[in-house]
Amino acid sequence: MDRWTALDHEGELLTRRQMIAYGRRFARAGRGAWYSVAIEVVWQFLAQATRFRVRGSHHIPKTGGVLVASNHLSFADPTTLTAFCLAAGRVPRYLAKASLWKLPVVGSVMRSGRHIPVHRGAATAAEAYRDLVASVRAGECVAVFPEGTFSNDPDGWPMRGKSGVVRAALETGAPVVPVANWGTHHLLPATAWFPRAIPRKTVELVAGPPVDLSDLAGRELTRPVLDEATARIMAAITDLLASIRGERPPLAA
């Protein structure tokens, strides 16, 4: 039996054999049949097309509700972030457009994975938020992209975040674990229809300790409070990304 563990090789660029072993560590309970099939199929592709370098997975708690907040550069981000969470022992749930639930196969994956549909309109958006809060309170790991869309920064630095994640965090008391995800934009650029798997791309993921929001807990969720909490989360993600890239964003970013 292969006793390789992610922690043994944290910070190293994983070989193909280590990528396969990394996938063997994925959490399996609670994935659902269709979500599990999708994970296995996508991981087989990632294991051949990418090389991961991972750090900080121990910051994701093994149990209890948690929000994992990542930057966003590519449609490939959910696949690599999912792998990172799974290797940390958690099955991530996502907020996603409700229209995906109507698609063949994809809809089955979304229902199987207990993901959270987001409908258009104020009333249905509030319902999605309630579902997010309920999921976190039920002890789920919910992965979120606070920017809400791909970063439009020309150098790929995170943009200003939206307040949904901090509302859920402050209402539930769940920790927010920041994650920087870098390299997916080379595998699947935002303007590309198909992945660019040759040559193999390097994807780096690093998690930091939960963002300290303790002084904001219990306060009325006014705009200044939400803005401050959101700024802290995005600053934590940016700091992690800077550690990967070995550079700092310009002051205006």
How are the SSEs ordered, and which strands pair?
Elements: H1 16-24, H2 33-49, E1 50-55, E2 66-70, H3 77-87, E3 92-97, H4 106-112, E4 116-118, H5 122-137, E5 141-144, H6 164-172, E6 176-182, H7 184-187, E7 201-207, H8 223-245
Parallel strand pairs: 1-7, 2-5, 2-6, 3-4, 3-5
Antiparallel strand pairs: 6-7
Helix pairs in contact: 1-2, 2-3, 2-4, 5-6
Walk me through what this model shows.
The chain is α/β, with parallel strands linked by helices and 253 residues long. It is built from eight helices and seven strands; from the N terminus they run H-H-E-E-H-E-H-E-H-E-H-E-H-E-H. The protein has a seven-stranded mixed sheet with strand order 1-7-6-2-5-3-4, with helices on both faces. Helix 4 links the parallel strand 3 and strand 4. The mean pLDDT is 91.
Could you give a short description of this structure?
This protein is globular. With 253 residues, it is an alpha/beta fold.
Features:
single chain, 253 residues, alpha/beta, seven-stranded mixed β-sheet, 8 helices, 38% helix, globular
- Largest sheet entry: 7 strands, mixed
What topology, given as strand order, has the largest sheet?
1-7-6-2-5-3-4
Measured as a percent range, the helix fraction is 25-40%
Shape: globular
Structural class, from secondary structure content?
alpha/beta
Low-confidence stretches: none
Instruction: Please compute the radius of gyration using only Cα atoms.
Output: 17 Å
Report how far apart the termini are.
Answer: 48 Å
Order of helices and strands: HHEEHEHEHEHEHEH
Number of strands: 7
Strand content: 15-25%
Mean pLDDT: 91
Query: How large is the count of helical segments?
Result: 8
